[in-house]
Design brief:
The protein is an alpha/beta fold. Helix content is 38%, strand content 13%. The strands form 3 sheets. The chain has a 7-stranded parallel beta sheet with strand order 9-8-7-6-5-10-11, covered by helices on one side. A two-stranded antiparallel sheet has the order 1-2.
């Protein structure tokens, strides 16, 4: 375990001020020296430079001996503070707007066409201005002339070096692939879980594909203990499903389906009763004598009691359905490696 990994965490909340004066609240328990914003003069900085050739193309040059370690860092609060920020033999690679939350970075990745759309990025920030002022190499789709340190991501070269087809579904995949192609001997992956939505469906398999290439090449990759990458909740064939005790996923899924069907049927019943009530109200308004109005008033009271009972039953079962669905969602995230209790 590295020195950084073994640090004990304090019960403090760290507040970070970005260059735009917007205030962001970090997760609790992160020591200030492992939080952001980036210190460009950090004592362990790699001091990489961008050189412009006579043809106008840009490339990265090393002003010091090339390092053998790199940490690729993402947003996940459960492990981004574990990257090797205080290791002078390690480069730190950040992404998008992560600069608010980490203390050091040596290369940056902003591989989006809409990098300069102010409304797309976090409120209170100015991504375009930050990139223009960024003093370290910034990998982009093109070497944007507005960004002094922008470097076009060398996608074709990476594919040739790794002898792989074009399979890049996220910035993280681009970063891992480049680290392998450049010959880093140690790759740390911190602040990256990829367990929700598109990240789980498309991005996680691709990141794990490149970690497989790293393993095949003898590259040592380092993941935090709570990482969802290269992790399984149960062994196919040997285990039927993850073992979560009584509240198993299959049991909860079956229970949720039963409740959902019941709620759907009860909702239909409520609509029917409401229709009968509206019809009785209409007939009462049109009744021509007091006797008929009296009979309809009694009828309306009976239907209202029936409606009240039906609604109470609907609310009861719908609440149960919502709770079972919440429990299933928690276990589903846990089955993907999420740190959810």
């Amino acid at each position: 375990m590295s020195e950084v990994e073994s640090l004990s965490l304090t019960e403090t909340t760290v507040h970070v001020v970005a260059s735009t004066d917007a205030v962001f609240e970090q997760s609790k328990g992160v020591p200030a020296e492992l939080a952001g914003p980036i210190q460009w003069d950090h004592p362990c900085a790699a001091h990489l430079k961008v050189e412009v050739s006579s043809t106008g193309s840009r490339r990265i040059i090393h002003t010091q001996a090339k390092r053998k370690k790199v940490c690729i860092v993402g947003y996940a609060e459960n492990s981004r503070h574990l990257a090797w920020y205080n290791d002078p033999e390690c480069e730190i690679w950040g992404v998008n707007q992560l600069g608010r939350f980490i203390p050091r970075a040596d290369r940056w990745f902003q591989i989006h066409h809409n990098w300069n759309e102010r409304n797309y990025w976090a409120a209170g920030t100015d991504q375009e201005s930050w990139l223009k002022a960024c003093p370290i190499p910034v990998y982009m789709i093109l070497d944007e002339p507005e960004i002094p340190n922008a470097v076009a991501y060398p996608k074709e070269w990476v594919k040739a070096e790794l002898q792989c087809h074009e399979y890049f579904t996220s910035s993280i995949a681009f970063m891992i692939a480049l680290a392998i192609a450049e010959g880093f001997e140690h790759i740390g992956i911190y602040g990256i879980d990829l367990i929700c939505g598109r990240e789980y469906q498309f991005e996680k398999p691709c990141a794990e594909f490149f970690l497989g290439i790293a393993h095949a090449r003898g590259v040592k990759y380092h993941l935090p203990e709570n990482s969802a990458l290269l992790w399984q909740s149960h062994t196919y064939g040997f285990d039927l499903e993850p073992n979560y005790g009584f509240y198993g996923m299959s049991k909860l899924k079956t229970r949720a389906k039963t409740l959902e069907d019941q709620v759907s049927k009860m909702r239909e019943d409520v609509f029917k009763i409401q229709g009968r009530l509206e019809e009785a109200d209409f007939l009462k308004s049109k009744a021509g004598d007091e006797v008929s109005k009296g009979h309809l008033a009694v009828r309306i009271q009976t239907i209202e009691r029936e409606l009240s009972q039906a609604l109470n039953l609907l609310y009861l079962h719908d609440g149960a359905f919502q709770e079972v669905s919440r429990m299933f969602g928690i276990l589903e995230l846990r089955s993907r490696g999420g740190s959810v209790s």
